[in-house]
Design goal:
The protein is α/β, with parallel strands linked by helices and 392 residues long. The chain is built from 11 helices and 18 strands. Helix 9 packs across helix 10.
């Protein structure tokens, strides 16, 4: 069995989709438990939103428990642009496992996210000059991987694939394309802790682990009662929004009476919920966003996702949803926390990073998640629903 520690839920779901594509039996958990019949166990820690002081003991405990299970590999899934407590969490995992050296292959060349000479680039633009600088939760202040990972608890190195590697410490890999990733894989061994993004994990599975590729190619169609929650502040591609509107998706965005004040009147929230419920009961698919109006305060972002989660909770008391789409890792984690969902089974990959999952607690419901900084496909088929893979 392979184990993955993922610091947010959409990252965990993305890794789950990759495992599914490689023919693996996948389970996403929030706690470490011994399981049978599973090839890929992913622990979604939600530690990206914590302080280093809060995150470190969580990772320590999870690593201790995973070591007792003795997986063939423990992979640390990190944000593709190194947001969160990447260095502190990885160093903690190394300490618990008795490993002196770690390799981080971050980035995602497919989406233009590369590291060159220790500088993180997005489509040839330094990371700190992109929209990631305005992230309300994790604003990026530097494009240098060494500056991003300072205070990791051990020495951090930036290296190209041709350079000699140190015996100890964390190495952040330069990576401009998939060929570089393959070269880095050839330089790994059992004495090195491996960490990075989804693209590196995909290539790692292809090169080091055998499996039968997933052959499910059926087209995905959401059910009649579908709710979209767009929790990320990243802009939506106009063609995607147009495709939703053309398919009859009704947008019922968070009212200004809720979004603007710190303390909103309950009646505004109840009216919002009632409107969403009414349209879902009439088999209209509904999408919800919040109008950020250029504001990016962390407290505001937190309040918005908490309110979104309460909306979902109230709607699900009134409507048996068939599909719930959630954008953004922090929003996903908050919704799952409110719904008390701790275990999920990936069952279909819709697109890169967009994974559909089943939950035993709500057997009729499919939950589909997407990282906030990824783009939705230009369109989604929204006409009917195919049968889904059963949870075994």
């Amino acid at each position: 069995m392979i184990a993955v520690i993922a610091d947010d839920f959409t990252g965990a779901a993305e890794i789950g989709g990759i495992g599914l594509n490689h023919g693996l039996r996948v389970l996403i958990e929030t706690k470490v438990k011994a399981v049978s019949g599973i090839d890929l166990l992913i622990i979604a820690t939600d530690t990206r939103s914590l302080s280093p002081m809060q995150a470190v003991p969580v990772i320590r405990k999870i690593t201790e428990l995973l070591n007792k299970i003795q997986p063939s590999l423990i992979y640390k899934k990190v944000d593709s642009v190194l947001r969160g407590n990447v260095g502190q969490e990885l160093h903690t995992q190394m300490e618990v496992s008795g490993i002196k050296k770690a390799l981080i292959v971050a980035g995602n060349p497919h989406f233009g996210r590369t590291i060159q000479n220790g500088i993180f680039m997005i489509s040839s633009v330094p990371l700190a000059e992109t929209d990631f600088a305005n992230d309300p939760d994790f604003p990026v202040r530097s494009s240098s991987v060494l500056e991003i990972l300072q205070n990791s608890g051990c020495q951090v190195f930036s290296k190209s694939v041709e350079e000699d590697l140190p015996e100890e410490g964390i190495v952040v890999a330069d990576v401009k394309d998939q060929n570089d990733m393959l070269k880095w894989i050839s330089r790994t061994d059992d004495t090195t802790a491996l960490a990075g993004g989804a693209e590196f994990f995909d290539m790692l599975l292809s090169s080091k682990f055998s499996g039968n590729p997933f052959s499910e190619n059926s087209i995905f169609f959401p059910g009649e009662k579908t709710l979209f929650i767009f929790g990320s502040r990243y802009p939506k591609r106009p063609e995607f929004v147009d495709s939703l509107c053309s398919a009859g998706i009704l947008f019922q965005n968070m009212p200004e009476e809720i979004y603007l004040p710190r303390d909103f009147a309950r009646i505004h929230f109840d009216d919002w919920v009632s409107g969403v419920v009414k349209n879902l009961r009439e088999n209209r698919k509904v999408a919800v966003m919040a109008g950020y109006s250029g504001r990016s305060e962390r407290i505001l972002a937190k309040r918005i996702r908490e309110t979104m989660a309460l909306l979902v909770q109230q709607v699900m008391k009134e409507v048996d949803l068939t599909d719930l789409f959630i954008e953004g890792g922090a929003t996903t984690s908050e919704i799952l926390r409110v719904l008390r969902i701790k275990k999920m089974y990936p069952c279909r990959v819709i697109d890169r990073g967009i994974t559909q999952m089943k939950v035993r607690k709500y057997p009729a419901l499919c939950i589909t998640t997407k990282p906030g900084s990824y783009s939705w496909p230009s369109s989604l088929p929204l006409e009917k629903r195919n049968d889904l893979i059963e949870i075994v």
